[in-house]
Structures are given as structure tokens and as C-alpha cells.
Amino acid sequence: MVKHDPFANATKQVNDACDILGIKDKELREYLAMPNKMMRVKIPVKMDNGKIRVFTGFRSQHNNDRGPYKGGIRYFNPEGGVEYMEREVMALSSWMTWKCAIVDIPLGGGKGAIYVNPKTEKLSDGEMERLTRQFAYKISEIIGPEKDIPAPDVYTTGREMTQIMDTFSKLNGNKYSPGVITGKPISMGGSLARNVATGLGAAYTVREAAKAIKLNLKGAKVVLQGFGNASTFAGEYLEKMGAKVIAVSDSKGSISIPKGAKVSKILEHKEKKGSVVGFPGSKKISTEELLTTKCDVLVPGALENQINAKIANKLQCKIIAEAANGPTLPEADPIILKKKILVIPDILANSGGVCISYLEWVQNNTGYYWSFDEVANKMEKNITKGFKDAYALSKKHKIDMRKATMVLAVERVLEAFNQKGIWP
Ligand SMILES: NC(=O)c1ccc[n+]([C@@H]2O[C@H](COP(=O)([O-])OP(=O)(O)OC[C@H]3O[C@@H](n4cnc5c(N)ncnc54)[C@H](O)[C@@H]3O)[C@@H](O)[C@H]2O)c1
Question: Whose CB among 23, 175, 181, 270 lies 3.0–4.6 Å from 18's, allowing a Cys bridge?
């Protein structure tokens, strides 16, 4: 077994929430923590050289008390190998349950994965399609618009989602089934606003956090770690709310732009030069300097495990919006709390993505499609309410927002479980 066990971490978070809620029953705690079902499949694929290669895939269905399972499918090869990936998928499916409950959408938690790195292993388009369709076939009995609705994740895109939808439809007597999966291209029943969803949602949560701590976003200084989908849209929407981006980074390095710059201009530079580094009027800085820049809002929007105890001690921001998954190590949380920095935890800050996935599914199931603004406005309502509900709980129990979001989510799932009871 690997050193760091993500599922143990997910289980601890459930237990911490149960402690606050006064739930002592060990069996109930186990029910909340463990996935309902974990499917592990062999995926034989005929490779281009004529040989057969057998891949391993997973689908973890954590909890469906509030609605069908929901969560991405990633193609990746984490360092810990296949056994580590199994634990990781279980943990990620658990986080999806809580994420959906916080923003109060009627879905549960799921996650899937294939142990493969399509980038480094350079799989051809044909090999990728055969792998995807064979995996879809293997999990077809447990997915479906009313059962479990996957989505894209690390190294999977609208292309794989379309192939899974088509495989599922053909296996079911050619029944058009766009609602079996989300994150599809628009031409395949995808939703408008899905591309900006995570960054836009993060910006909405920052707006609510700013109101809560009486911070004026007009002229507020923003630092973005990462310059991809989640972070650039978060930056652009914060700009629309009056804020100014003063430091950014990508995989090639970090820069500080003391006078501030428009995200669109930095993007133009990155498109031409391949990195944010070298942007006119900027100075190259270290990752630590980026994260500890004096600012109002820090958006870690790239990688996990970025803010450790050392960095936490040096932070000079008022709000942290975790657009990335897991950017803060548990050791840093008490330090951040002591420094009175308001953290919008990942399961809330980046939940705009799953909110709009839910709205894609609703549109697919009704066959009626909304405009960009209609979708964005619906997401805004859910994520804003999620922030307000969690913030109220954090005040009531005198806990940080990370714990408060978990308490809120566990309460909501338990309520559904108690309504239904156990059958048979
Ligand atoms: N996109 C979504 O809808 C979505 C939804 C929920 C959560 N997230 C989370 O947001 C994070 C980013 O996802 P994304 O979709 O924006 O990915 P992306 O691939 O679009 O962007 C990632 C960015 O991180 C940068 N990066 C890589 N290594 C870095 C380093 N060492 N230092 C600084 N920057 C580095 C890359 O250069 C890139 O700009 C991930 O943790 C992901 O799980 C994304």
C-alpha cells in the first residue's frame, strides 16, 4: 500500500463531520464513508501492432441517496500504481457525493478511471477509441441517465464522452441517450457555459466571500496559480467584478505584474510564447513568492498539495479560492484559520463544473436547451446558496469552511438516507 492514502483522507473528513454532528454510530459512519459499489474491470484492447493489451479500469459509485451517481472518468497512471488508483477513485467518488450535496443538486457521487497515460504512452486515435468503447461496454450495466452519469476528467475530453454515449446508446437498442454522460461537445448535446463553469463558479464564491468579510472587489488584487481552464476564467470573471490580476503562473514559471494586467492580454502572450513567463512589465518570481504575494484573493488553480505549513505561515491574502482540487495540505488548515484567511474549499469553489454538468443532464433529459445566461444564472443560484449555507454553519459551529462544507453535505445526505430507509 502507498504512503499517502487518499481514501483514508476522505474517510477522515467524513468522520470529522460526524464528530461535529454528534453522529457516534460506527456503522452509520461506515455507510457514509464507503462507496456503495466499486467495479474493477479488465479492458482488452487490440493495439495497432496487432497485439492485445489488457488495461485496468474502475468505476466507484459512492452514494446515490440524493440522486444518480455523478463524476468524471480519468485516464491516468498515478505513481502508486493500479492499487493506489483504486483508493484514489474511491476517495474522488466520495468527494463528488459531498460536492453535489453542498450545491444542492439532486445527484450522488461517482468516479471512474483507466490506468493509462495517453500522453506519455502516445496511444493512437484508434487505440484510444477502442479502449474507451471497451471500457464503456464493461461498465455499461451500471451507468445510465437514471443510474450513473460520468463526465470528463484528467486526460479525457468531449471526444471520449461522445464515444461512451454512442457505445451506451448502441448497446441499448440504439436508444438516443445523451443523458448518460456530460461534458459532451455542444453538437452532441453539451451545455453552453460548461467551458467557463469552474472559473465562473469560483468567481461567484469569491464574490460571496468578499461580501462576508466586507472586502470591496473593486480594485481587489488577485493572484492566480496556473493559467488553464479553471484559473483563467476565474481571473476573467473576477476582473469583470472589478478586481485586478497582479501575479500568475503556469508550468514554466511564475510572474509578478505589479501594475496588474488583463487576463486576455496575458493569454495572448501565452499563446504566442508558450508561457506566461516574459509577459511585458512582469518580473519572474518563485512559486513560493507567487503564493505568498500580498493580495486580496489567492486562487490556487493548478495542482494539489501546494500550500504546506511553511507557505501557510507566509500567506498574505484575505481569501483563498481553491479552484484546483486539493491545493492545501491538512497541516496548513489550522495555520490559515489562525491567520483569519477565509478559505473557500475546493468542493465548493470548483463546484461550478458539476453544477453545469447537472444542467446539461437536465437539458438532455427534457430535450430543451437553454441560453448561456440561463445556464450561468441557474448555476449562480446553486453555488451562491452553497456558500451562504456553509458560511452560516461555519459561524454556528465555529469551524473553518472546509469542515463546514463537509458538515453541510453530510447532513444533506443523511437526511435523504433517513427519508428512504433501507430496503429490502
Ligand atoms: N476544468 C474544470 O472544469 C475543473 C473542475 C473541477 C476542478 N478542476 C481542477 O482545477 C485544476 C486545474 O484544472 P484545469 O481544468 O484548469 O486544467 P488545465 O490543464 O486547463 O490547466 C492547468 C494549468 O496548470 C498549470 N500548471 C501545471 N503545472 C504547474 C506548476 N507546477 N505551477 C503552476 N502552474 C502549473 C498549467 O500550465 C496550466 O496552465 C485541477 O486541480 C482540476 O482538478 C477543474
Answer: 23
Grid cell listed for 1: 500500500
Q: Is 226 in the pocket of ligand 1 (CB under 6 A)?
A: yes
- The ligand 1 atom nearest the CA atom of 198: 3
Q: Is the CB of 229 under 6 A from ligand 1?
A: yes
* Residue 282, annotated as binding a ligand: no
The interface pTM score, or ipTM, of the predicted complex is 0.98
Whose alpha carbon is nearest atom 38 of ligand 1? 228
pLDDT in tens, 360-416: 999 999 999 999 999 999 999 999 999 999 999 999 999 999 999 999 999 999 999
Distance between CA 67 and CA 63 in Å, rounded? Answer: 8
Q: Cα–chain-centroid distance for residue 126?
A: 29
Q: d(Cα 376, Cα 378) in Å, to the nearest integer? A: 6
**Amino acid symbol at 206:** V
Between vectors from CA 73 to CA 71 and to CA 78, what angle results, nearest 5°?
Answer: 120
φ/ψ of 240, rounded to 5, equals: -60, -25
| Virtual torsion, Cα 185, 364, 236, 300, nearest 10 deg | -90
Asked if residue 169 belongs to a known ligand binding site, the reply is: no
Residue 121 has a CB neighbour count (10 Å cut-off) of: 11
CA dist 18 and 296 (Å) reads 33
Domains in the chain, start-ordered, CATH in brackets?
A: 34-174 (3.40.50.10860), 197-349 (3.40.50.720)
Q: How many CB atoms lie within 10 A of CB 17?
A: 24
CA 171 – ligand 1 centroid, Å: 34
Compute φ and ψ for 221, nearest 5 degrees: -95, 130
The closest of 25, 28, 32 to 11, measured between CA atoms, is: 32
pLDDT digits over 227-260, tens only? Answer: 999 999 999 999 999 999 999 999 999 999 999 9
Answer yes or no: are the C-beta atoms of 297 and 317 closer than 8 Å.
yes
CA of 33 to the centre of ligand 1 (A): 27
Q: Is 0.90 surpassed by the pTM of this model?
A: yes
Sheet arrangement for strand 342-344: 283-285, 253-261, 244-250, 221-225, 297-300, 319-321, 342-344
Which residue in 378, 380, 348 sits closest to 200, CA to CA? 380
